[in-house]
From TrEMBL:
This is Erythritol/L-threitol dehydrogenase. It comes from the Bacteria. It comes from Aerophobetes bacterium.
Length: 51
């Protein structure tokens, strides 16, 4: 499963900008975890360590 997904990403067949729906600075990890755990209106919630 993962090799195929990685291949699709490398070839640009999957638009990653549509997958990451939320980006939070690390200091807002509690809010990020809350949104990720609910799953509504979120696909991929990301923490930005430098943010």
């Amino acid at each position: 499963c993962y090799p195929l997904a990685i291949d699709y990403l490398k070839r640009g067949l999957v638009k990653v900008d549509k997958i990451v729906t939320h980006v939070f600075p690390l200091r807002e990890y509690k809010k990020a975890m809350k949104i990720a755990s609910k799953g509504q209106d979120s696909i991929k919630v990301t923490l930005a360590p430098g943010g």
